[in-house]
Amino acid sequence: MEKKRIAILGAGESGVGAAMLAQKHGYDVFVSDFGTIPSQYKEKLEALNIVFEENTHTAAEILKAVEVIKSPGIPDTAGIIKEIRSRNIPVLSEIEFAKRYTKAKTICITGSNGKTTTTMLTYHILKNAGLNVGLAGNIGHSFAAQVASADFDWYVLEISSFMLDDMYDFKADIAVLLNITPDHLDRYDYKLGNYAASKMRITQNQTSEDIFIYCADDEETLKALKNVKVDSKTYPFSIRKKIEKGAYLESNNIHININLNDQLTMSITELALQGKHNIYNSMASGIVAKVLDIRNTAIRESMGDFKNIEHRLEHVARISGVDYINDSKATNVNSTWYALESVGTDVILIMGGVDKGNDYDMLKDMVRQKVKAIVCLGKDNKRIHEAFEDDVEIIVNTFSAHEAVQVAYHLAKKGNTVLLSPACASFDLFKNYEDRGNQFKAAVKEL
């Protein structure tokens, strides 16, 4: 009997993981990447004798597939995707495909900002509490690769809107939506409503047995909730008002009350993650932990000793009384707002890169209050100059991480913070945000 073909577009972490899982389940696998495949992934494909191509998409081979698994980074407007869809071949995400082959339960975390931190914190709490738990999605090792080779009871998955767009039968046992702010609007016809609808797909297929956790202070989330029917049990969280079942902040204490006989109360001073936005992230993770009946002492301990991820408000060094912080993962305006909000000193802000249709207005007040100078790091900084020329005295253009750090070093005074928080994607000067963050850290270490 001839094997059914699965074509996989994109040979990064998710694509290669999907290829491994598809091969394990007896499919004829063909992997196609329009760019160059990184050597570590090429070696994996070769070791498994999986057929692949790079720097091209051969339509004749791809269109033989019964299903196509595409990388989240490939837009629906790509020619090959249009051709696949015109033949009515289903296009799905690696997450959708992998879920078919596991009985594990999933905790799925999405939001414009904070999802990586919240995913990592949730995983940290669950793992410390002794649960048999995996970490995947937009972070760590591919979900499909882990389903192919591991046997977890639970997965904590960081889910982007691009992944959600290609998820249909998938169901989150516990879904978390942190916030909805303008991001990636270039993929959503520049309409926030389209992007919000994409985020709400996190609740699709949920039943009354499932859980949906969301921010009751987020206007766009509340708006989007009016357009969908949510069948799951809902637990909101807020720092503005008391919540009967969920989490809230009162006189600098977080209260998590899922079970009224076993409430968790914790001072925000005990949290490893500081800043207003991190109170939200901690509440969301705390609700997940309480839903899973993890003991209060274990939750407190994990929330107190958590170390944040690389490139997210990562303290690099203190040199001559100046702190250097790497927040390269801040690829949208809202993330940069949060970064500025969490820094308690005057800031020399390094920002810029590929602008995804950014609206810098929301940053203006924060920039006026805290930013002494902006060091632009990007090929085209015109929009940053236009946005902030009335708010900041000094705006300087630089074209490498080394140059940006040197300029910031000369502008900073003792007690200041040099913050790399770009509000933009990195593809003009760097491979990705990790490359940008690593080059920034290397430049700081040379000072």
UniProtKB/TrEMBL annotation:
Q: Where is the Mur ligase C-terminal domain?
A: 311-424
InterPro entries reported in the protein's UniProt record? Mur-like_cat_sf, Mur_ligase_C, Mur_ligase_C_dom_sf, Mur_ligase_cen, MurD
Show the GO MF annotations: ATP binding; UDP-N-acetylmuramoylalanine-D-glutamate ligase activity
Domain Mur ligase central span(s) in chain numbering: 109-288
Chief location bin: cytoplasm
User: An example Gene Ontology cellular component term from the record?
Assistant: cytoplasm
Q: What is its EC number?
A: 6.3.2.9
Q: In which pathway does it act?
A: Cell wall biogenesis; peptidoglycan biosynthesis
Give residues annotated as binding ATP: 111-117
Which locations, inside or outside the cell, does it occupy? Cytoplasm
**Keywords per UniProt:** ATP-binding, Cell cycle, Cell division, Cell shape, Cell wall biogenesis/degradation, Cytoplasm, Ligase, Nucleotide-binding, Peptidoglycan synthesis
Q: Which reaction does it catalyse?
A: UDP-N-acetyl-alpha-D-muramoyl-L-alanine + D-glutamate + ATP = UDP-N-acetyl-alpha-D-muramoyl-L-alanyl-D-glutamate + ADP + phosphate + H(+)
GO biological process terms, semicolon-separated: cell division; cell wall organization; peptidoglycan biosynthetic process; regulation of cell shape
Briefly state the protein's biological role.
Cell wall formation. Catalyzes the addition of glutamate to the nucleotide precursor UDP-N-acetylmuramoyl-L-alanine (UMA).
Would you identify the family this protein belongs to, as annotated?
Belongs to the MurCDEF family.
Under the heading PANTHER family, the entry gives: UDP-N-ACETYLMURAMOYLALANINE--D-GLUTAMATE LIGASE
Q: What is this protein called?
A: UDP-N-acetylmuramoylalanine--D-glutamate ligase
Supply the gene name: murD
